[in-house]
Every structure is written in structure tokens, then in C-alpha cells.
Design goal:
Helices cover 44% and strands 13% of the residues. The strands form 2 sheets. It has an 8-stranded parallel beta barrel with strand order 1-2-3-6-7-8-9-10, surrounded by 7 helices. Strands 4-5 form a two-stranded antiparallel sheet. Bound molecules: 1,6-di-O-phosphono-beta-D-fructofuranose. 1,6-di-O-phosphono-beta-D-fructofuranose binds next to helix 3 and helix 13.
Length: 305
């Protein structure tokens, strides 16, 4: 029975939402190998847009086919598959009902320079038409264009909630307001998680934070209050706290392709820190199918405890 007490507890944090939105969150939490545990492993495949097809699918050319990723998510027992409009449209009919879908509603490419800002590339109605459980949206706190992204998200969130969908926010600090190390600094990561919660996200995704502290004022408080930030588990714990005291689902991204042991060690630390799960793309789809499935299953196994 996947509608467990833990699922009910998590849903109780979202009582202001419509029955439709709560049903979609429930569907995410009761699908796949982690059904009922309160944990999520999601397969995101927007890297073709974000980094280009060569960098994304060159290592495993089968990944050029959007249907490959539907099947990968299903075979691995993921809770959901997230992708931009074109890729979801390519397989939504064939795979209808087989895995929850998240429509990534804004995207950026790496073909131009300047302050990071994503374009809105789909609509809430597209998400409904394709049978998605929710919309996905990236914000770049630290960019000069952050306010535009926050305001666009506000409109989309309002509509998604009114139409009974879940809202998943990728909160990725970057831009001229931050140093390169600052993009994943513990204080900035926690801040990014908190901003996404304040913007009304149901599920927030951040990168695993480092021990770097970007803001001098935050450093003083971390030291004075003795907030532990030494290990990744410590830092994850703090980020979960920053996400409304643990009342929002906070998950962590997988990052660029790396060795299996390195991936699994990181997941163990995320799990130890109280992460609600992971969203792992490149480390899954850049491996041959069987290896990608095996790695995702190992990740799921760690979250299962
Ligand atoms: P990965 O597991 O491949 O890191 O995917 C997670 C993700 O959030 C993708 O959805 C997104 O395309 C990518 O990371 C962005 O990575 P970056 O911030 O390095 O451009």
C-alpha cells in the first residue's frame, strides 16, 4: 500500500492547495520504486536544451531519442520524468499513464553570453494536454534578471495551482551577483531553497551545497550559531531546515557525469542529511541503458534505506 502515513504527512503540508494539486503530489509520491516512502528520484532530461545535444547525448547516442528517456525512467522505477515541451510531446501519447511527467516550462541555452535568464517555452495548458502531474521552472537567484523569472513564475504558479497541477522549481543561483564558488555555497544554496519555497513551489530542487560561504553576513551567523556545515550531510540538513523547516519537498541534482562510487557516496550523504530525494540526469542517461538503470536502482535503494 503506497498511500502511507508518511505520504499523508507530506500532503498535510500542502493543505492550502486544491484537491487536484494534492492528488498530483500524491501521484508523484505513490509511483515507482520509492512509492510510499516520501522520497523521490526523478529523471530530468532538459540538458539537450541547456547544454546542447553533443555534450548531453554524445556519450550515449541512444539518448538523442526522447522515447529513450521515457523508457529509462520507467525501467529504473523513477517517480517521474521531467523534460521540455518538444521531448515530452514526442512520447506523451505512446507512454501515456506509464510514468508521471513534469513539463519543464522554461529553458535557456549556452549559445549566448550575458546574464542568465530562461525563456518561457511552454504553457500550463500544454502540461494539462500532455497529462503532466506538474510544471517545472528554473530560477537563477543572483542574476540581474531574477525578478523577471520570479514574476513569470508567479503567473505560471497561479495558473498551475488553479488548474490542479504541482509546481517544481529548479533553484540554481548564478549570475553577476555571485562568484563561481558562490553558486553552490551553503548559505546561497539554503537561500535559493528558501526563495523557491516563498515563491510557492511544492517541490524544490537545488545543487548539493559546498562548505564555501559566500556572504560575509551569513558567515558571521553560521559561526556564531555554530551551524554545522562541515560534511555534505550537515549542509543538506541545513538546506532542508531552510525549506520551511522541512515542510517542503527538497531534492538535489546529480551534476555532471562521474564515477559510480562517487555518485553513490554523494547520495548516501544526501540521504543522511534528510534529503527528500534526487533528480539525476546525466549520470543516468549518459551511461548505456542497463548501466543507467542499474545506477538509478542503486540510488533508489539508498533512499529506501
Ligand atoms: P543533472 O543530473 O544532469 O545535473 O540534471 C539536473 C539538472 O538540473 C538538469 O535538469 C539541468 O539541465 C542541469 O541540471 C543543469 O545543469 P547546469 O546547472 O550545470 O547547467
Amino acid at each position: 500500500m503506497s498511500f502511507t502515513d508518511r505520504v499523508k504527512q507530506i500532503l498535510s503540508w500542502y493543505t492550502s492547495e486544491t484537491p487536484g494539486t494534492r492528488a498530483q503530489l500524491a501521484r508523484l509520491l505513490t509511483t515507482g520504486e520509492l512509492a510510499g516512502t516520501g522520497k523521490l528520484v526523478i529523471l530530468p532530461v532538459d540538458q539537450g536544451f541547456e547544454h546542447g545535444p553533443v555534450r548531453s547525448f554524445g556519450p550515449n547516442p541512444a539518448g538523442h531519442d526522447p522515447l529513450y528517456h521515457y523508457q529509462l525512467g520507467i525501467d529504473a522505477g523513477c517517480n517521474a520524468y521531467a523534460a521540455p515541451l518538444g521531448a515530452l510531446e514526442a512520447g506523451a501519447a505512446e507512454y501515456a499513464g506509464q510514468i508521471p511527467l513534469i513539463l519543464k516550462l522554461n529553458n535557456s541555452d549556452t549559445l549566448s553570453k550575458g546574464e542568465p535568464c530562461s525563456a518561457v517555452t511552454g504553457s500550463v495548458d500544454d502540461a494539462l494536454r500532455l497529462g503532466c502531474v506538474g510544471i517545472g521552472y528554473t530560477i537563477y537567484p543572483g542574476s540581474e534578471h531574477r525578478n523577471r523569472m520570479y514574476e513569470d513564475l508567479r503567473e505560471l504558479t497561479l495558473e498551475a495551482k488553479a488548474k490542479g497541477l504541482a509546481v517544481v522549481v529548479w533553484s540554481y543561483p548564478r549570475g553577476s551577483g555571485l562568484s563561481k564558488d558562490g553558486e553552490t555555497a551553503i548559505d546561497v544554496a539554503a537561500y535559493a531553497a528558501h526563495i523557491a519555497c516563498q515563491l510557492g513551489a511544492h517541490i524544490v530542487k537545488i545543487k548539493p551545497p559546498t562548505a564555501h560561504i559566500e556572504q560575509a553576513e551569513a558567515k558571521k551567523v553560521i559561526e556564531k550559531a555554530k551551524i554545522p556545515v562541515e560534511t555534505l550531510a550537515d549542509r543538506v540538513k541545513y538546506c532542508v531546515q531552510a525549506a520551511f523547516g522541512g515542510r517542503r519537498i527538497l531534492i538535489f541534482s546529480g551534476g555532471a557525469a562521474k564515477g559510480t562510487q562517487e555518485v553513490l557516496d554523494e547520495i548516501r550523504q544526501l540521504n543522511a542529511g534528510g534529503a527528500f530525494g534526487s533528480i539525476v540526469g546525466r549520470n543516468a542517461f549518459q551511461r548505456p541503458h542497463a548501466e543507467g538503470v542499474a545506477l538509478l536502482k542503486q540510488i533508489i535503494g539508498i533512499y529506501k534505506g
